[in-house]
Amino acid sequence: MKIQRLYFILTGLILFNMIFGPLVRATDSGLACPDWPLCHGKFVPEWTFHIFMEVGHRFYSGFLGLIVLFGFINILRDADLRAQFLLPATLSMIFLISQVILGALTVTKLLHPTTVNLHLLNAILLLLTCLLIGLLAKEKKATEFIFQVKANYLFILLLVGIIYQIFLGGKVSSNYAGLACPDFPTCYGTFFPELSGTIRYQMEHRWFGYIVALLVYGTASYAIFEIENKQVKKYLKIACYLITIQILLGAFNVIYQLPKLLTGVHTLNAVATLLVCFIASFYHFRTPRIQK
Predict the structure, then answer these.
(1) Angle formed by the axes of helices 113-138 and 79-108, nearest 10°
(2) Name one GO cellular component term (predicted).
(3) Confidence of residue 286 (pLDDT cuts 50, 70, 90)
């Protein structure tokens, strides 16, 4: 199905943008252009590395926006697609518009932590909405989407936990708290330092990361023993590998003093973990209706 391919490709492109954005910040390019939507009053400014990163992110995000709009128009024009995907497609447009507004505010508010974090959170919602459309299109009976009763709350808690952990990671970055603790797994030699200044952001992110890891491992263990759906088990097993890698990436970021590429990969892997758990939840929640 064309709509399936379109939204799966779009999901991949947005996922790439999830590492592009953090790299803009990691290279201190976020305010290379002090104005918006132009850059130093020009659509195509004089290029430096920092301007290339900032303007490149803008152009790429604009390209993604056109694809989201294209998909939305195609769904509106087709009665069958409109009946199945109107709600998530409309949400994708809402998240797109809010993402543009938040992107502008991120520049005009001089990288204020609140706008930066909301910009990241909104990007995640746009990503999940596009992935949902692709998954629904993949299923032949996308309109027959109902919810199982068993373990619903566990899967919802898992997704909310990962999204909140990514949000906490954004707070660490936007408040420049990545090196608030120079050691790992302790902070200045203790597991429970005084939560003052930027140390609070760093330790909140670490502690909640351990909780999320336990949620991933626990949900996967539950699925192995209690859930029959092989797709759910497969994707949760992948999530276990990804969350283990994520802990290692977090440790290496501290130990090696925040290498730029490694910080981007850390964010990318976090979002990949979320996507895998989202797909597992999708297959858990979806079950065919019994035909009478």
Answers:
(1) 160
(2) membrane
(3) confident
